[in-house]
């Protein structure tokens, strides 16, 4: 299919992603949609006179020519629904965009992708969580997606840049502008390693209704969505709800019960819409990303030896050779189970070990 006709398909008024895919399924290609007769188009389920009139007019092709010139001039990649490099996770979502515009170098089918979202009014608590996420995720070869908005979004992007993590911002407008403009420097750094992604063409303003639409891409493109801080109303909760509707994993950091910017996170956890995570290492455990870079793990273990009690260090040394049940640890280390239980709990709360079913423990 020609890129021109792919783009033109998105400019047909009253055609959304579902009907666009329906047209492609019946016609076979974007070119065939525009060359079909009125009679042929009206035979397609869900396509009425108003939509046919919009298809048969030349406005969409004319506008697409302008868009094509822009993307070619600025090195923007056009990702069509049927293309091999279209994000496969997103493709599986029923309302995924028929076409995306991407500027950057990231692999949108990266083996590990998470989305980080949150309030525009980030507190020190939320910013510290983003810092922790950046430090921990740097060892796991992950792609982080967010919305480049004020607050948690841009903080997550900045921490990714600081920790050399590939990061992609999903925009609620075309790639001919940036909102908010204050994030221009961050966006330029992102393009060098990650990128900017949008389903919106040029001349699209960052209107309010675009952002919930943008949020479905953030939710759909990732393996899991992480809510750092969120009030009870706002884009972060919308993204979490969409992720749940896609049967994606959702996790949230809890906050104080009287904190308005943790109210949304607490609600998601309370209503079983999100798993609770207290530390970035919890996320690694839930997602099964246990294969840390060996060198970093050795460095971490060296650091632990300086800070642990004698019994704690004995447990860590033992667990370096594998996972053990609590009874086995008692026998190996000759520590009373009552004392050992306290040691294990302390190590688990510090994020050093993790408990498995059957009172089995291993290093995190």
Gist of the model:
47% of the residues lie in helices and 13% in strands.
Write a structural description.
By secondary structure, this protein is an alpha/beta fold. The protein contains 18 helices and 12 strands. It has helices at 3-10, 17-27, 30-35, 38-42, 49-56, 59-73, 88-91, 124-137, 152-162, 184-193, 210-220, 235-245, 263-270, 280-287, 294-304, 310-319, 326-333, 337-349; strands at 77-80, 99-104, 113-117, 143-146, 166-170, 195-198, 224-227, 249-252, 275-276, 324-325, 353-356, 360-363. It has a 9-stranded mixed β-sheet with strand order 1-2-6-5-4-3-7-8-9, sandwiched between helices. The protein has a 3-stranded antiparallel β-sheet with strand order 10-12-11. Strand 5, helix 10 (184-193) and strand 6 form a beta-alpha-beta unit. Helix 8 (124-137) packs parallel to helix 9 and helix 11 crosses helix 12 (235-245). The longest helix has 15 residues, at 59-73. The radius of gyration is 24 Å and the shape is elongated. The mean pLDDT is 90.
Kindly list the characteristics that best describe this protein.
3-stranded antiparallel sheet; alpha/beta; 9-stranded mixed sheet; about 375 residues; about 15% strand; 18 helices; elongated
* Sequence of secondary-structure elements: HHHHHHEHEEHEHEHEHEHEHEHHHEHHEE
Could you name the ranges where pLDDT drops below 50 across 5 or more consecutive residues?
Answer: none
Quaternary structure of the protein = single chain
Count the DSSP helices. 18
Measured distance between first and last alpha carbons: 49 Å
Provide the β-strand percentage band: 5-15%
Largest sheet: 9 strands, mixed
What is the spatial order of strands in the main beta sheet?
1-2-6-5-4-3-7-8-9
């Amino acid at each position: 299919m020609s890129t021109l006709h792919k783009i033109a398909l998105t400019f047909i008024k009253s055609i959304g992603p579902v009907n666009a895919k329906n047209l492609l399924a019946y016609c076979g290609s974007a070119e065939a949609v525009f060359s079909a007769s009125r009679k042929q188009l009206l035979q397609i389920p869900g396509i009425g006179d108003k939509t046919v009139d919009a298809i048969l007019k030349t406005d969409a092709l004319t506008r697409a020519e302008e868009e094509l010139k822009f993307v070619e001039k600025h090195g923007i990649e056009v990702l069509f629904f049927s293309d091999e490099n279209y994000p496969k996770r997103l493709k599986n979502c029923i309302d995924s965009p028929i076409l995306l515009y991407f500027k950057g170098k990231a692999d949108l089918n990266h083996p590990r992708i998470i989305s980080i979202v949150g309030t525009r009014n980030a507190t020190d608590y939320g910013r510290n969580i983003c810092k922790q996420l950046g430090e921990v995720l740097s060892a796991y070869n992950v792609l982080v997606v967010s919305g480049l908005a004020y607050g948690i979004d841009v903080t997550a992007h900045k921490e990714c840049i600081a920790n050399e993590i590939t990061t992609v911002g999903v925009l609620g407008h075309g790639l001919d502008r940036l909102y908010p403009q204050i994030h221009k420097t961050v966006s330029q750094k992102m393009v060098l390693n990650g990128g900017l992604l949008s389903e919106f063409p040029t001349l699209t303003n960052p209107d309010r209704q675009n952002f919930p639409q943008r949020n479905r891409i953030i939710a759909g493109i990732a393996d899991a969505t992480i809510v750092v801080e969120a009030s009870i109303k706002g884009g972060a909760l919308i993204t979490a709800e969409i992720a749940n509707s896609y049967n994606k994993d959702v996790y949230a950091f809890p906050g104080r019960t009287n904190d308005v910017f943790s109210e949304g996170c607490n609600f998601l956890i309370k209503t079983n819409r999100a798993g609770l995570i207290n530390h970035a290492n919890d996320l690694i455990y839930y997602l099964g990303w246990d294969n840390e870079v060996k060198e970093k793990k050795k460095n971490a273990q060296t650091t632990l030896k300086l800070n642990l009690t004698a019994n704690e260090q004995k447990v860590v040394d033992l667990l370096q050779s594998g996972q053990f049940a609590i009874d086995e640890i008692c026998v190996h280390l000759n520590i009373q189970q009552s004392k050992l239980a306290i040691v294990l709990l302390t190590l688990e709360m510090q994020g050093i070990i993790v408990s498995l079913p059957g009172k089995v423990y291993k290093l995190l």
